[in-house]
Amino acid sequence: MIRIQEAPFDVGVELAALTRGRSDIGAVASFQGLVREVAGDQTITAMTLEHYPGMTEKKLAEIEAEANARWPLQASLIVHRYGRMLPGEPIVLVATASPHRTAALEACAFLIDWLKTKAPFWKLEETAAESRWVEARSSDDLAAARWRERA
Amino acid sequence: MRILYFAWLRTKTGTPSEQVSPPAEVTTVGELMQWLAGRRPGFAEALAAPGVVRAAVNQDYAELSDPVRPGDEVAFFPPVTGG
Fold it and tell me: What pLDDT was estimated at residue B44?
């Protein structure tokens, strides 16, 4: 399941909903990304996430379908926020469920690695002095690339 | 053809979206970028670095050599930084 929303989410509520009424799931893995206060030597006062409505849903659906094709998942969830948020607030949640831990853990890592390089979101950081668009990191490309050869 | 700009391309062009009718000889993403860049101040600077600007045609990532057609939705933006 995919949700794009402006409002914050509660990771406990989301994970409970993922397994509610299910007794066949043996493992749930999750990743939550938060707004970090420190970027280099700068203090971040707020972060604004812009996205491409329509393409965002399309790309996240493709990424989720790819994870389900590669691993035997019983459930998967991607929640990504947009709009302005403060340090400490959640930005993104990825969760996967499977009978055993390996598939859940690997699929969770895959989802966030691919999301970071394929989902059309852009971060604008605010400091006391200025606002600036965050630049893409080559380490994110490398993290995404490690999953490519398994196709 | 509907053109969308995101992140610093939107702020540099001052334009989130616009409807355009490029001439018939504009048939690829790269040719469309060149044509858009020549139209108004701000666009040339925003679209100047093809290695930095990414594109999507009808909500799929596209290369400079990929075709564009009347009625397409074409977006320009920097490398993504979500997650």
Answer: 85
**Which regions in chain B score pLDDT beneath 70?**
49-51
**Residue A150 banded pLDDT, cuts 50, 70, 90:** low
Could you tell me the sign of the dihedral formed by the alpha carbons of B37, B43, B48, B51, in that order? negative
- A135/A127 Cα distance (integer angstroms): 15
B2-77: CATH number: 3.10.20.30
The SS3 assignment for B81 reads: coil
Q: A64: which DSSP letter?
A: H
Scan for tokens 């969830």, then name that residue: A77
Structural domain containing residue A133: 2-150
Answer yes or no: do A49 and B7 touch at CB < 8 A: no
Cβ neighbours of A54 in B, within 8 Å: 59
- The pLDDT tens digits for A25-70 are 999 999 999 999 998 888 999 999 999 999 999 999 999 999 999 9
User: What CATH number should be reported for the domain holding residue A19?
Assistant: 3.90.1170.40
Identify the pLDDT of residue A55: 98
Query: What's the complex ipTM?
Result: 0.93
Best of A133, A139, A142 to substitute, by most chain B Cβ atoms within 10 angstroms, is A133
When pLDDT is cut at 50, 70 and 90, the band that residue A96 belongs to is very high
What domain count does chain A have? 1
The residue whose two tokens read 């001052």 is B14
Is the Cβ pair A55, B59 closer than 8 Å?
A: yes
> Which of B5, B6, B23, B17 lies closest to B70 in space, CA to CA?
B23
